[in-house]
């Protein structure tokens, strides 16, 4: 690599110099993991495996078998192209058939006459992860120091599978070349809506609150429609840095689960799922236009995030949003260093 290219590469690595935040993060939608299925995951700068036991419970482990290091997320023979086999409540290593439950304990070695002492003592051999399943999503708790969960994911009643008043999820996903905090700051950056997304004016927040691990914002505006003037509301709430719900009301009631998960410190995955009030299985042009507009906004934001540099002390003016308050709130989730002691 030339000296010039070395400088460029170093500059790219330094665009955002922040640790990954801790919290609950979405790794899959529930329907993406069937009973008896396993899949590899790459999040939090780590290789993981997720599997659903025969009793229907989702489990997540570090990816590598404690026996000889095979990746548990890649099957062979009848399972080639998919994950490893799941038998009962355990995942089966494709290399030598060792079985591990969701706690990382070895539950069986098919050819061993005498179990290794650590297996016989039922010790945890593979680090396991805390998992929650709600809102048709599967969430994993990440903390760089292995701290137990200190809050829980939000529960969104409208997304419940037995709520007939709301339709099916419309799912969209983006991989973003930036740290999660850069994405989160959009929630308080009213001015960018005008210049990045072409809104006719800069929206003024009616309410903005930061409380413990939660954040809440409200924007209200009058919208002119063929049916007259309508009071529009955009209410957005976050629990931790990774899970957000946005409620749009006025023209067409729409809920957006806007969840962001760190792939590593400088790459994030956005999982956006829209749900709207049920209309006999149909989506009106107006309803679809709301979703299309938000998707277009993400494509526009993506360009900015991929090339901007994070400034620890930005030069702000009185028309900018409450960046300082947001960063103080977000900063509680950022821990430098730390050793994960889940094992």
Automatic annotation (TrEMBL):
Protein's pathway: Hormone biosynthesis; Steroid hormone biosynthesis; dafachronic acid biosynthesis
Keyword line: 2Fe-2S, Iron, Iron-sulfur, Membrane, Metal-binding, Oxidoreductase, Transmembrane, Transmembrane helix
Top EC group: oxidoreductase
Catalytic activity of the protein: cholesterol + NADPH + O2 + H(+) = 7-dehydrocholesterol + NADP(+) + 2 H2O; cholesterol + NADH + O2 + H(+) = 7-dehydrocholesterol + NAD(+) + 2 H2O
SUPFAM superfamilies: Bet v1-like (SSF55961), ISP domain (SSF50022)
One Pfam short name: KshA_C
Major location category of this protein: membrane
Signal peptide start-end: none
Subcellular location: Membrane
Co-factor(s): Fe cation
Record-listed E.C. numbers: 1.14.19.21
Limits of the Rieske domain: 25-140
Family under the similarity heading: Belongs to the cholesterol 7-desaturase family.
The protein, known as: cholesterol 7-desaturase
Origin species: Zhongshania arctica
């Amino acid at each position: 690599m030339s000296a010039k290219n070395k400088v460029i590469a170093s500059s790219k690595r330094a665009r955002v110099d922040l640790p990954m935040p801790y919290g609950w993060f979405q790794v899959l939608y529930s329907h993406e993991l069937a009973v008896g299925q396993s899949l590899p995951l790459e999040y939090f700068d780590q290789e993981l495996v997720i599997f659903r036991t025969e009793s229907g419970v989702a489990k997540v482990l570090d990816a590598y078998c404690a026996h000889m290091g095979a990746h548990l997320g890649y099957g062979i023979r009848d399972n080639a192209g998919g994950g490893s086999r799941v038998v009962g409540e355990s995942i089966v290593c494709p290399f030598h058939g060792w079985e591990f439950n969701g706690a990382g304990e070895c539950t069986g070695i098919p050819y061993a006459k005498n179990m290794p002492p650590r297996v016989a003592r039922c010790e945890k051999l593979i680090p396991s992860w805390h998992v929650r399943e709600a809102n048709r999503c599967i969430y994993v708790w990440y903390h760089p120091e292995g701290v137990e969960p200190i809050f829980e994911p939000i529960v969104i009643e409208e997304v419940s599978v037995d709520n007939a008043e709301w339709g099916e999820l419309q799912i969209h996903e983006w991989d973003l070349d930036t740290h999660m905090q850069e994405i989160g700051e959009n929630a308080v950056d009213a001015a960018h809506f005008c210049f990045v997304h072409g809104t006719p004016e800069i929206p003024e927040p009616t309410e903005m609150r930061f409380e413990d691990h939660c954040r809440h914002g409200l924007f209200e505006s009058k919208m002119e429609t063929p049916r007259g003037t309508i009071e529009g509301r955009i209410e957005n709430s976050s629990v931790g840095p990774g899970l957000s719900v946005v409620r749009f009301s006025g023209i067409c009631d729409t809920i957006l689960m806007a969840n962001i998960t760190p792939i590593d410190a400088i790459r994030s995955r956005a999982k956006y799922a829209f749900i709207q009030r049920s209309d006999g299985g149909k989506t009106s042009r107006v309803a679809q236009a709301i979703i299309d507009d938000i998707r277009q906004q993400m494509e526009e934001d993506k360009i900015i995030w991929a090339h901007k540099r994070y400034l620890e002390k930005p030069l702000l003016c009185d028309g900018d949003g409450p960046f300082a308050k947001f960063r103080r709130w977000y900063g509680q989730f950022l821990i430098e260093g730390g050793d994960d002691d889940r094992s």
